[in-house]
Design brief:
Blueprint (H helix, E strand, L loop, with lengths): L38 H4 L2
Length: 44
């Protein structure tokens, strides 16, 4: 039996609380700029 590791960019983002319901369904959803989980806070 082997073990696999799955990774995809779509699995790295999660909904930012109730803000996830304000965005359209489908595709890649990136957290907004005002949330602590925004990409701008992760850039170096």
């Amino acid at each position: 039996m082997t073990t696999g590791f799955y990774t995809d960019e779509r699995t790295f983002w999660h909904g930012g609380g109730n803000y996830a319901f304000t965005l359209p369904v489908g595709g890649l959803v990136q957290p907004g700029g005002g949330l602590p989980e925004s990409p701008e806070t992760k850039r170096r």
